[in-house]
Every structure is written in C-alpha cells, then in structure tokens.
Design a protein that fits this description.
This protein has helices at 58-77, 101-109, 119-130, 150-162, 177-183, 198-204, and strands at 2-5, 8-12, 18-23, 26-31, 37-41, 44-51, 81-87, 91-98, 136-143, 166-172, 190-193, 213-217. The chain is α/β, with parallel strands linked by helices. Helix 1 (58-77) packs parallel to helix 6. It is globular. The protein starts with a strand and ends with a strand.
Length: 218
C-alpha cells in the first residue's frame, strides 16, 4: 500500500512489518524495527532560462514575462529562491536566486528580444551557479524554438543533470517536442503549448517543482 502527501511517500509492505518513507528523492526503510527519521526543510533554488531570441516577438515575450512572475510567486511560497537568466546570441545572468518577487520583477521587465538562441551558454551559467549549492536545484527553460546547437545543448544539460540538477522544459511555436523531452530530466517534465497559452504553461511549471524536503536518519 502506498500513500503520497505533498511529496512524501510512505510504502507499507503487504503482510510484512516493513515501512519505507521517501522524500525529495531520499528514502529510508525499516523492517520490524523502529524507524527514527527527521523531516527537514532543504534549501531550494530554481533558475528560469528565458529565450529572448529575435523570434520571441513582443507578444510572446510579454507572455513569458507574466509567466515568470506567476511561476516565481508560487515557487517562493513553496520555499524556493528564484533566479533568472536570459539568452539570445549571448546569455547573461539577470538575477541571482532571491525570495523577493519585486526584486525579480525589475529584471523581468528589462528583458528585450533580439539575436540568436544560445541556450548552451545559458545552461552553463545556471550549472556553474547551482553546482556548488546544496539542496534542491532546478532549471526551467522556456523557448519558442530550437537552440543554435542542439547537440551541444543536450551535452551541457546532461552535465548539469549528472550533478543532480533537475530540468523542466517548456516550448511553443517552433520548439521541437522530442528535443524538449530529451532536455527535461524525465518524462512529464516537458511540454509544448500554443503561443496563446505560453504564459500559463510557464506559470504551471511551478507545480512540477520537487518539494524542497529531505530525510535525516538518526
């Protein structure tokens, strides 16, 4: 029998005195013995990587901006710190992970379109920032097309995944569904939507964030 409540899974073995508890990717189990664990709040960080290439016209960028604000509002309520990186021909860090939605909004409102789609550099920036942090770490990528170098993008994303960083991918228009699936950490963490609902898709990605919790066995 399995129970799941807000990221906490308790599995009871039928006919056995065994219980397994899983939280945030960690699990402990006991078979006929007392299970002494402590549920702790982990640090949690998420970077939003926003496509600002020339194909992101004003309407799509405005949608992306609103989606970022809505996503961040929910993520912050769920104890995440939210950072922002934009990419076009180049990529740059707009905002370090913070819990201040007004501070993040300043960077969001300054985003402008133009240039190519250098997703590789954006992922490298996020990886460099996250790899030395402990706790839950996530990258959310929102794009309307394909990166300048697909193979290199998947390679740098895999390097980040190897360091325990989760990837969520959201695409619209000319984005490739198969590529988004490969970019995401696992099935269910990628989606392609119509441009008319791009904002909602970015905002809804907050529901895909893993709970920033962990278990300590004592």
């Amino acid at each position: 029998m399995s129970e799941n409540t807000r990221g906490i899974e308790i599995v009871k073995q039928q006919g056995q005195k065994a219980v397994e508890i899983s939280v945030g990717g960690e699990s402990v189990s006991a078979k006929g013995e007392p299970l002494d664990v402590q549920l702790v709040q982990q640090h949690a960080y998420v970077y939003l990587l926003i496509d600002c290439s020339g194909s992101m016209n004003k309407n799509k960028l405005d949608q992306a901006k609103q989606g970022v604000i809505d996503f961040a509002t929910d993520a912050i309520l769920n104890k995440y710190k939210v950072g922002l990186i934009c990419f076009e021909t180049d990529a740059r860090l707009v905002c370090e992970p913070i819990s201040d939605i007004q501070g993040l909004a300043i960077g969001v409102n300054a985003l402008r379109v133009g240039g190519g789609t250098n997703m590789v550099k954006a992922i490298r920036i996020a990886h460099d920032k996250l790899k030395h942090l402990s706790g839950t770490r996530v990258v959310v990528i929102a794009t309307d097309g394909m990166p300048d170098d697909t193979k290199a993008t998947l390679k740098v994303a895999q390097a980040a995944k190897n360091d325990g960083i989760e990837f969520i991918a959201i695409g619209t228009d000319d984005a490739n569904k198969d590529f988004l699936g490969k970019l995401a950490t696992r099935q269910g963490l990628s989606t392609k939507v119509a441009s008319a609902v791009f904002s909602q898709a970015i905002a809804s990605a907050s529901s895909m964030l893993p709970p920033p919790r962990g278990l300590i066995k004592r």
